[in-house]
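Researcher: Dear colleague, please comment on this protein.
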Amino acid sequence: MFNVQFLNGGYMTNILEGAKGSRHLLMGNEAIARGALEAGVSVIAGYPGTPSSEIIETLANVSSQQNLYVEWSVNEKVAMEVAAAGSFAGLRTMAVMKQNGVNVGSDFLLHLALTGTRGGMVLVHCDDPGALSSANEGESRHFARMLEIPLLEPGDFQEAKDMIKWAFKLSEAIHNVVMVRSVTRLSHASGNVIFGALPVKEKKAFFKHDGGLLDPLEGPMSSLPAPVRHGQQQEKLARAMAEFEASGFNTYSGPEPPELLMITSSACNLYCKEAISLLGLEDRVGLLKLGTTWPLPPDLMQTYLKMTDRILIVEEVISFLEDNVKIIAAELASKIGSKIFYGKREGFIPSTNEMNPDLVLAALAKIMEINYEATPPAYARRSQELVVSGAPGRDLTFCAGCPHRASFWTLHNVLQLDGRQGFGCGDIGCYSMAVLPTGFSTLKTLHAMGSGVGLASGFGKLGQFGMDQPVLATVGDSTFFHAVLPALINAVHHQSDITIVVLDNSGTAMTGFQSHPGLPVDAAGNEVPAIDIAAVCQAMGATVRISDPFDIDHTQQTLLELFEIKGLKVLVLKQACALSPQKKGKKMFDVSVDENICLGQNCGCNQLCTRIFKCPGLKWNPEQQVSGIDEVICVGCGVCASICPSGAIQRKEVA
C-alpha cells in the first residue's frame, strides 16, 4: 500500500513505494511523475496551473529522498529556462505547465528549439478541453508544429508513465526538447499503472562550453547562427519522425481491412474504445491510436490509410490531428487513393469542449448507419424537467470567508462613491469571478495573467483625450511575480494615473496554495527568503499603502485617499485565504444574528446580507423572515457584521 502525505494543503501519494512490476492505482499526473523518476530526472521546474500542478507537487514530495531539484518558478518562461540550464549541464530535466503556460514560455522555447539540448529535456503541458479550470481552451499542440519539435500524447495511464521515460530517451537521441501533452481527463482521472525500476543516479552536472560555436555537445549553447541552427533543427525532427515509425505507442486494433478506420490520440482513445464496444463494431471498425502525433510517421500512416476508404478522426477542440492526417493523405494520394474523411470540418466531431463516449457514439452510429440513442428521449425530458422545477440555482461565488469578497465590496463601493464611472481591470485567478455578481461586477476587463495592470497602464494615459474615470487593476500575489512586474514598471515609468490593488492571500490559492516568491518556503517546504511586494512597489516609485480587506472602514478610507493622489498607487490587501492550510478550521469570530434586530426585507436594506453580499455562510429564513448564520459553512471572518446596516449581525472574538 502507498503512504499518503500532506503537501500544500492536499494529500499526495508517495510514489516511491512499490517494487518493479507491481501494479498501483495512480492519478495521471502521478503516473507522469513516476515516469520521470524512472527516467532518472534531476531538475523539475514549473508554474502552478490546473490540470498540471500535481506533477510538481508529487515530485517535490519526494525530492529529498531522490536528490531532485524541484521549484515553482516565477513563471513558465523561467521554468523552461531553469530546466534548460540543467539539460545544458548534462542532466535530465522536465518543465511542467498548463496550456496557457506554453504561450508564456514560447519566447524562450523558440530559441531552445534552435539551440537544442544535451541531457534529456521534456516539456509536459496539460491542456484543458472544455476550459474546466481555465479561461480558455487554448491549444498547445500547435507549438510543436510551429517550433518543429516532437509531440507525444499518452492514450492511457500506463502510457502516461512509460511515454515520459521514452520521451527522455528521444530527447537525448535527437538533442532537442520533446513535448508530451496530457489533458484534464487524463491528468486528473486515475488508472492502474505497472511500475518499472527506479535508477541509481550518479551523473554530475557540468556545462561544457569550450568547443566551437557550432559544436552541439561542447560549444556555447546559442541559437546563433539562426539559419544554420534551423537546418539542424529540421534534421533533428526528421530523426524523431524515423523513430516514430516503429514506436510502440502507435497501436492498431480491429479487422484488416476495416469498413471504417478511426484515428485518435490522447484521452479520446478511451472514448473511442468504449464507443466501438457499445455498438458491437469490433469486427467492422479499426482503431488507430497515435501516441506520436507530430510529426506523423509517413510509412506507418500509409500502412493504415490504405486499408479503407472511410476515415473518422476523433480529437478534442482544434482540428490539429485531423488537418495533419489530411495533409499526409494528400501527399500519399498516389499510393493510397482518395479517401472520405469524417471529422470536425464535416460536422461529425465538435470543435469546442470536451469529447465523451456519447459524442463518439453519435458520430460512429451515423457513419455506420446504426440506430442508436445515447440518451433516451424520455430520460432527457425528465432530467430537464427536474432541473427546471426542483434543482436550486448555484451561481459561481467566492468561498465563505474569502478575503476577495470583502475586497471587492470595498472596491465597488468606493468606485460608486467616487461617481465618475470608474472600473476595475482584472486577470486570472479566483478573483476573476469579480466580473460576476459575487464580486459585485467590479471587474470590466479580464484577459491573461498580468493583463489587468497592462490594460490599466494604457487606460491611465488617456487623460489627454478627456478620460477622467478612475482605473483600478486587481492582481493576486502569485500573479504579481508571474506577469505584473513588467506592466508595473511600464506604468511607473510612464506615470500612468492608476491604482493597483494586490490581493495578497498568501499563496497560489486557485491551484492549491503552491508557494511563490512572496512566501518564505519553496516547493519542497524549505525555508527561503520572501520578496516583499509592498517594498518592491515602493522601490519602483509607487505610492504604497497596506490594509486588511476585512477592515472595511480602513480599507475604504485608504482607497479614497489614494484616489486623490496622481500617478501610480498600490494598495496591498493582506489576508490569507480561508481555505489555506494555516487558516483552515480556525475562526476569528463567532458570528450570530440577533433576530430581534434583523427586520429582513423591512429594515431598509432589503436583505443586503443575503441578497447582495451573498456570503455562503449567510442564510435567509423565509418563514421567520430573518437572516441567519450557517454554522457549518461560516468560517468566522466577521465581515458580514461590518456591512449590516442595522447591526443585527454580531461578532464575538474567539478566545
User: Anything to note?
Assistant: The chain has a mean pLDDT of 92. The chain has 22 helices and 26 strands. The first helix runs from residue 28 to 38. The CA atoms of residues 487 and 649 lie 41 Å apart.
